[in-house]
Amino acid sequence: MVECVANVSEGRNLVTLDRMSTAIRQIPGCLLLHRDVGHDAHRSVFTFAGSGEAVAHAALALADVCLRDIDMREHQGSHPRIGALDVCPIVPLSPEADSEADAAVAAIAAGLQNRGVGGWLYAQSACYPAYADLAEVRRGEYEGLPHRSIPMDFGTYQPAFGATALGKRPFLLAYNIHVRGRNVELVRAVANRVRQRHPQGLRGVKAIGWDCPTWDCTQVSCNVVDLDLCTPKQLFDRVSQEIAVLGGKVFGSELIGLAPAHAFRDFANMEEAVNYLGLDTVESFHPRDRILESVLSSHLTSS
Q1: Are strands 2-8 and 43-50 parallel, antiparallel or unpaired?
Q2: What is d(CA 227, CA 233) in angstroms, rounded to the nearest whole number?
Q3: Rounded mean pLDDT of the chain?
Q4: Catalytic: which of 34, 79, 198, 286?
Q5: Is the pLDDT of residue 15 over 70?
Q6: Where are the alpha helices (DSSP H) in 115-161?
Q7: Which residue, among 61, 69, 83, 67, has the nearest Cα to 14 in the 3D structure?
Q8: Dist. CA 268–CA 262, nearest whole Å
Q9: What value does the mean pLDDT take over residues 45-73?
Q10: Would you call 198 a catalytic residue per the annotation?
Q11: In 3-state terms, the chain is what percent helix, strand and coil (to 5)?
Q12: Lower Cβ count inside 10 Å, N or C end of the chain?
């Protein structure tokens, strides 16, 4: 079994988002595990799982809705992006599924090319060494696509669709920390200090800072790319410390998509984790719906 955590550049039109959910659910053998909608980022994350073949069909069904309903020439949001189906990572859920994930990546690349759109392979599938890092694939964002010197790995550039970053990667945790007030420079400074590239940064962490007007706050938005090196608690504590030094205050955090249970190993149980991290500060948080193993078990039992 493999997982796809597809990021699309739509977070405001619920009719379009419902079409996307339906497109995924209609694929036999594919389970839609979660949908995370971000209004300010103008971006949504769909998590679905199944056989490599089923997941590839579902990703292409999702791409079809993106092609029909998203025009990147009109897109504005706080999150970096290069295309309508912006990022399409395939995650093997066991070591035995590694080759299955590779086959799914190849099938999705071929399917996008057949649809007249394209993009680059990234992470463990990268053809260009620099593109192992997603940030490098998105450098210059959508607006910079016509000026790229590196040709697409598959398909062709289509302005309304943009480009897709597609590849096999390990599990990562998308995790945002809320900061009171609207001082974007503050959260950007802290993001710079906690990210792995900083000399005193946290290993396995990528971070940016942005405004979040919907909740009248700012966020340090993070990807924990190696949960063996950093946990949400370690990241939350470090960001809280850095924000306090600069005169700000953290008031909670949010998980984007799903997380494996071992991400919260610093806590005795999930209730303690929710309370400490403030995971329910701005929206409700139910561990049974957000812990990968629990969600998978529930879907497999009901199917």
Answers
A1: antiparallel
A2: 11
A3: 96
A4: 79
A5: yes
A6: 134-137
A7: 69
A8: 11
A9: 98
A10: no
A11: 40, 25, 35
A12: C
